[in-house]
Amino acid sequence: MMKVLSIIISFIVIQGLLITSNAIPISETSNVTFEEKYNDMLDFIVIGDWGYQGKGVGQHHGNQKNVAFVMKKWAERYNSQFIINVGDSFYKSEPDDHQGVDSVNDEKWKTAWLDVYEGRLAEIPWYSVAGNHDWYNNVSAEIEYSLTVDSRFFMPSLFYVRTNIINGEKKTKVAWIHIDTNIFFYKYDLLKNDQMKNNFDTLGWNDDNDVENKLRWIEQQLIEQQDADWILATGHHPLIGACVAYNYMPRLVELFERYGVSAYFAGHAHVLEYQTPKPDSPVAYFTSGAASRTSEGCSGKDWGMPEGTFGFLHATIVENEMTFSFVNATTTKDKVVYQGKLTARSIWHPK
Ligand SMILES: *[C@@H]1O[C@H](CO)[C@@H](O)[C@H](O)[C@H]1NC(C)=O
Ligand SMILES: *[C@@H]1O[C@H](CO)[C@@H](O)[C@H](O)[C@H]1NC(C)=O
Ligand SMILES: *[C@@H]1O[C@H](CO)[C@@H](O)[C@H](O)[C@H]1NC(C)=O
């Protein structure tokens, strides 16, 4: 029933767009859940805020490339199965460069992504969401690229759900909810970037109804995935400490807690940070936004790296246990700077 309802709702949304807008329709939500099967375990890397053309503005050394080098080493050592990309995939690299991408033919697909991430990183899918810098230009071109050029950059719509069935000794189900947080982090009336505002206009995202619709969509997906051992959410903007306080972002926390989300992965803050689950805040919050630039993080975190530390997050799920490591990849002499474990929601949130 839920599924039928969600298909009908998505259909209405898509139809609505075709009628009301003469720009290219942006696919907001996918009408299908993407199902994947794995053997024994899941292994993945979480990366955010990476899209310079090898180096950042004013940087003489390619920090993005150092991080990419270390990521490749880790992905090959652990046979990582995919990348979770939390957005800001394309920055303005030089003063005369543009934000985001212009089109599916933008040379940055090559210079910021294909040319930088090599070996296994160039073979496995990158499950992506859009960051604010992606919205500062042609965000729909990123969806179109995924649908028509190379689905390895996986972003069939702004919001989508994947399920991973892991066939080990015990069958384990992981549900991923990929969310575009820009609608929750920015308030339409306060938008400062013209192109972002244009994109919001194209979608008709100009009042609280759109926010409520998206929250309802997320809630419906969370209800449908209650049989999962793990529910993992990803979005661009962080929910750690003081960083939670933007506009509609606290509504996500409320939903995640109500429906037993295990963990939320984000970037935007250019740091590596972690907030441990607690009785009054049972979701684990990860920030991995230091893949090409660094800055001070969110105050109030339980753990974080100082400005100047580049890196990423690596995680493995075997049945009821997730082990994770934050990796300092500032130079190619990488080092684990934090390690931890989480337990499946099916243990602490029984079905
Ligand atoms: C889902 O959407 C796609 C494209 O938007 C459409 O081609 C397809 O028929 C839809 N599937 C269902 C089951 O509605
Ligand atoms: C956005 O990208 C698409 C796909 O390449 C292209 O067709 C469209 O013209 C672009 N829009 C703008 C405003 O440049
Ligand atoms: C991260 O690695 C760099 C380079 O090896 C090192 O200088 C820095 O101290 C490390 N940061 C931390 C917090 O360990």
Automatic annotation (TrEMBL):
<dbReference type="GO" id="GO:0016787">
    <property type="term" value="F:hydrolase activity"/>
</dbReference>
<keyword id="KW-0732">Signal</keyword>
<protein>
    <recommendedName>
        <fullName>Calcineurin-like phosphoesterase domain-containing protein</fullName>
    </recommendedName>
</protein>
<dbReference type="InterPro" id="IPR029052">
    <property type="entry name" value="Metallo-depent_PP-like"/>
</dbReference>
<feature type="signal peptide">
    <location>
        <begin position="1"/>
        <end position="23"/>
    </location>
</feature>
<feature type="domain" description="Calcineurin-like phosphoesterase">
    <location>
        <begin position="44"/>
        <end position="271"/>
    </location>
</feature>
<dbReference type="InterPro" id="IPR051558">
    <property type="entry name" value="Metallophosphoesterase_PAP"/>
</dbReference>
<dbReference type="Pfam" id="PF00149">
    <property type="entry name" value="Metallophos"/>
</dbReference>
<keyword id="KW-0378">Hydrolase</keyword>
<dbReference type="InterPro" id="IPR004843">
    <property type="entry name" value="Calcineurin-like_PHP"/>
</dbReference>
